[in-house]
Amino acid sequence: MVLRTFLKGLCMGVAEIIPGVSGSTIALILGVYFKFINFLDAITILVKDLFIEIKNLLITRNFSTLIRLKFFRTVLTKHKDNIDWGFGFTLFFGMIVGLLLSSQLIFYILQNYRQYFFAFLFGLILVSILVFLKKLRNLSLLNLFVLFFIAFFVFSLLNTLQTRCFQNVYDINSNISISFAFFLFLAGFIAICVMMLPGVSGSYILLVLGVYDYIITVLKNIINLNIKIEYLIPLFMIIFGILFGFLCFVKIVKYLNNRYPLQINVVLLGIIIGSLRTVYPFYGGISNVSCQTYTIVLPWEYQKSDIFLVLICVLLGALIGFLFSYFGREKTSGKIQ
């Protein structure tokens, strides 16, 4: 069980460094998405209780208990039955290992074999969608309409975005206005919410909003110890937006899954189906020469000589996706209704 959880985290970590691919997609495919959300929600409750306890100790001036950290043990004991520490730490450890071990390899593959790698991912996610769809039963016409509508909307949106060239529209040396600071907060909020949804990576949303290069430049300057107030303010605003979005989104997803499990799974599945546009491997002509963005064509309209190699990669991904879905399923998993 521990090894299985570690391997699932490993796959999520690898997915997070692939542009346009979300680790949440892999989490949903492998059957740990909602368990992961519940773990994060339990952690937020624990942190909230810790802050309340610290505030009470400061008000009562009970500094001895505060210094000895006795309150920390008390709060942990209170929540020990509500948090699956083994699952959470194992999954996060697997994600970190996946990020560290695969970063150089994935970047090399994306630089030299991008289309074949995306073909592999396309087959993997496509088969996993079909397997996940079998878990949804008693789908009404309304649910089917919502599923295809969301899939079509996300696919169309990504198709529009991926044929455009997004560039940094904010200067690192410009003054930080109140409106720009709020926009950075909003960008962090949107990015973390999208990152926790299966389908699209949060970094891609920052790219669309035009602040990805800006944020990367800020981080590079701080890492290089070039610390200025012009860099710290935007960094704090992004972090506050991420924290606020994290706290809000985890609660919302947990509530919806507890109240409307079938409906929320239909919505998430629709997002994943639509996000197949991100890894669609059959390219047509160049839509933007300066950005090297491509239009897409149907498989039988694909004119390049490597079509058989692309199809083999799709089939290999489909096989791996089937194995993931078969061996990665939870023993207690069943139909969702």
Name the helix and strand elements from N-terminus to C-terminus, one letter apiece.
HHHHHHHHHHHHHEEH
Q: How many H/I helices?
A: 14
Q: pLDDT under 50 segments (min length 5)?
A: 287-292
Order of strands across the widest beta sheet?
1-2
**Gross geometry:** globular
In helices, the fraction of residues equals over 70%
Report what the structure shows:
The chain has 337 residues and is mainly alpha-helical. The chain has one domain (2-168, 250-327). Helix content is 72%, strand content 3%. It has helices at 2-16, 23-29, 33-59, 63-68, 70-79, 85-112, 114-135, 141-162, 178-195, 202-209, 212-223, 229-259, 261-274, 307-327; strands spanning 283-288, 293-296. The radius of gyration is 22 Å and the shape is globular. Residues 287-292 have low confidence and may be disordered.
Task: Please specify the SSE layout and strand pairing.
Elements: H1 2-16, H2 23-29, H3 33-59, H4 63-68, H5 70-79, H6 85-112, H7 114-135, H8 141-162, H9 178-195, H10 202-209, H11 212-223, H12 229-259, H13 261-274, E1 283-288, E2 293-296, H14 307-327
Antiparallel strand pairs: 1-2
